[in-house]
């Protein structure tokens, strides 16, 4: 289905920054590197000098200007908003890149967020974690506020419980209530239910039932409250004679996240859920370990490009590389040779001198000496700066400790990460339709993993008490992968919050210097094998420092291999949702095109497209139900039509390789500001109060996807199609078909029996509905409809008479 012609990997690196004439000693300079076309490429600020990096707004004149930005290697995010005078896009830019783009004529406007916002998020997260840790030291104390039953609405009876935990500020605190059926009856004979955590203005108040719980047994005498933090308390249940309340239809609990979480926290949470609910869960260890949150230790020496070189340890930083040091000394005498001395992990380079005692060693000579010395080369490799000839003289430098420059605490493992998926279902044998929900392919999208986690918590916490949830879990096979990109996400959380890619460094020496370390990695949503960069599709890059680097080959990365392994290992997966941020989009295939002639991957057929659209109404209504957020019609549809081309994305791989109904969410819809009469973007990492709301509403959307999948599984009804004459003229009749549900129509015009190999109803055009079919003579039309679940309707027939010309 896809082209196998692979174009030459011509470099698309373009100059945005000029080479500074001097580098500060010990600094990590931002310089440009020569490219195949003689131009140079922008570099990211180092993680220790990133305060200038910001998420910026750019107004492009047209789509061609957006494509030009992509070709320049600008770190564009998944955001595209038509304006009266152009197209608004967003990009992660350093101050130098901003200046360079403006000099090139691009309309770079104000920032959306920068490092100050990042630091505020980090501080809030630390405070939340500290509160959790403090609460975890001892069993929590529970205080019963109310425990009552009452009668209302024609004698119906209800329970109303309220209990407070001194650890309740932690959203992971879960309280269950168990009640008896009267005096001297077993403690849980009346039932058990999970209570909902009630907060007001961001403050924890107590746990309760969201609405009174219908009582189906005798009135209870005693209730026992049990907390997941270890606390327990009993209380008498009394009758309340207050104002009657209407009986609720459901008793549903939600809101299980209270701070942004790193991949280690998220993984521990899903492992804990599997242990707590062993009958309906399973942890799946994905087979390919990631590269790990780790880097080689490095240091850079020099004050100008020609005299600059850098060294990189053979060992990972945490495995001894960080203990290596290099010094450059003046031997203090004339006519001394360049020598390298190694003692343990201490490397001393004694620079050469001439007859006057002046230093004569160039950067290239020092690099050669280090690489030639057996003891030194066992510890490290040396390189001139970004392919420079290194003819400049090297200056002395005191002992410099090499560092991997990673800032995460020791609790974050530096070893390859074991990615884990949480499987939820009563029947986990492949007999039920599978749904795959996955989040955080892009590291900087902090809201997405807590969205997946919230969905898992809702499914498990509501299973026993909510019939609708139970129906979903019993009728589906649900796979949740909260973090696709654990290494990059750790790096985003602790080192460089704008990190998009994973941490695997495929850069050659020319771009592997320390100042480039925030630009290393592969875009995991450009590393799949359908409509890829290597097939000639637009929206990815061959540059290892580009934000959309496709990797050295299709599915080169273990994270991408794990995604592919999951859908191949579990062929019952029929639906998938890839959750990203931000902008508020709901998208599906096709997701890529070739720029020349805008050659789009094959569009879905008429019936499947209608299924996508019909499902979107239910799914987006669920998103809207939380706080009223509406995903715009203009941001709903195939990715290529509502956003851009994303070569090698995973949703395309799912649909074109496996026929999986694959969607993409972009959480974080724009918020309307009536004071300014404009829609404001929220960014990747909004303050947690906003991020929390996004997670809640899009978790509701993920639940709705499960409901769509369950309806698909239960669909046994045959679709019908009606022939509709649209117009008649002299010598012609135009007609089309209208279906009872999302279905494909197969038809014949010669009176023969229609099959799924017959002519197939197509589109009139994008968003234009069904095509019109024209006949010019009396015609016997026969047709049948086939829905997305494979139900086949009965063959129908109609004779069309054509007016004489």
TrEMBL record:
> Which PROSITE patterns does the record match to this protein?
CARBOXYPEPT_ZN_1, PEPTIDASE_M14
Q: What GO annotations for molecular function exist for this entry?
A: metallocarboxypeptidase activity; zinc ion binding
**What cofactor requirement does the entry state?**
Zn(2+)
Q: Where is the signal peptide?
A: 1-32
The chain's coiled-coil residues are none
SMART domains on file: Zn_pept
The top EC class, named as a word, is hydrolase
Which EC number(s) does UniProt give?
3.4.17.18
Enumerate the Gene Ontology biological process terms. proteolysis
Keywords attached to this entry: Carboxypeptidase, Hydrolase, Metal-binding, Metalloprotease, Protease, Signal, Zinc
Domain named Peptidase M14 is located at 350-709
Q: Which Pfam families match?
A: CHB_HEX_C_1 (PF13290), Peptidase_M14 (PF00246)
An example GO CC term for this entry is: extracellular space
Q: Which reaction does it catalyse?
A: Releases a C-terminal residue, which may be hydrophobic or positively charged
**Active site per database record:** 666 (proton donor/acceptor)
For this protein, the record's InterPro entries field holds:
CARBOXYPEPT_ZN_1 (IPR057246), GH29D-like_dom (IPR059177), Peptidase_M14 (IPR000834)
Role according to the record: Carboxypeptidase that possesses the specificities of both mammalian Cpase A and B. Thus shows broad substrate specificity, being able to cleave Cbz-Gly-Leu, Cbz-Gly-Val, Cbz-Gly-Phe, Cbz-Gly-Lys and Bz-Gly-Arg in vitro.
Q: According to its UniProt record, which protein family does this protein belong to?
A: Belongs to the peptidase M14 family.
The name of this protein is Zinc carboxypeptidase
Give the species this sequence originates from: Micromonospora pisi
Q: What is the lineage of its organism?
A: Bacteria, Bacillati, Actinomycetota, Actinomycetes, Micromonosporales
